[in-house]
Amino acid sequence: MKFSSRQPEPAGMQLAPMIDIVFLLLIFFIVTWQFSRSETELNVSVPTAEEGAELTRPKGEIIINVLGDGVIRVEGSTVDLPQLHDKLAAIARQFENQPVRIRGDGSVAYQRIVEVIDTCQKAGIWNISFATQRPTPAE
């Protein structure tokens, strides 16, 4: 009886699963980049402060951007005070201690910031913080 010593052919590298994973990673990074970009308006120049806590964002924090001309933007869309109240009240009903961060432009009237704070409090939001930046060191 003669046995043949047949070796199985080497398996080729499967590219389809690798391409699927690469595309999933690409989609994930594009979506998260777009989301984080819409939260912080680039044309808001927050005031400077020597002291303050380091930036640690609580989970689910809402960022309210108040632009230099008084326009209020939340999650990439422009809202007025009644719309902001409705949005925050709906969130406050679901989450008891909802954190909110106000990013007010340094040139916006203080009255506009007070109106935003008042709207937050009327909606039941009390966990409010303010965004600042460190001053640039003089050389």
Alpha carbon gap, first and last residue: 91 Å
Number of strands: 5
Largest sheet: 5 strands, mixed
Share of β-strand residues? 15-25%
Taken from the alpha-carbon principal axes, the silhouette is elongated
- Mean pLDDT score: 81
Q: Using only CA atoms, what is the Rg?
A: 25 Å
- Unreliable stretches: none
- Level of helix content? 25-40%
CATH class division of the domain at 39-130: Alpha Beta
- What's the total helix number? 3
Question: Architecture of the domain at 39-130, CATH level 2?
Answer: 2-Layer Sandwich
Spatial strand sequence of the major β-sheet: 3-2-1-4-5
Q: What is the CATH topology classification name of the domain at 39-130?
A: Nucleotidyltransferase, domain 5
Structural class by sheet pairing and helices? alpha/beta
H-E order? HEEEHEHE
Helices and strands, with pairings:
Layout: H1 15-39, E1 62-66, E2 72-74, E3 77-79, H2 81-94, E4 99-104, H3 110-122, E5 127-130
Parallel strand pairs: 1-4, 4-5
Antiparallel strand pairs: 1-2, 2-3
Helix pairs in contact: 2-3
What does this structure look like?
The chain is an alpha/beta fold. The protein has a domain at 39-130: Nucleotidyltransferase, domain 5 (2-Layer Sandwich). Helix content is 37%, strand content 15%. It has three helices and five strands. The protein has a five-stranded mixed beta sheet. A hairpin with a 5-residue loop joins strand 1 and strand 2 (72-74). The longest helix is centred in the first third of the chain and has 25 residues, at 15-39. The mean pLDDT is 81.
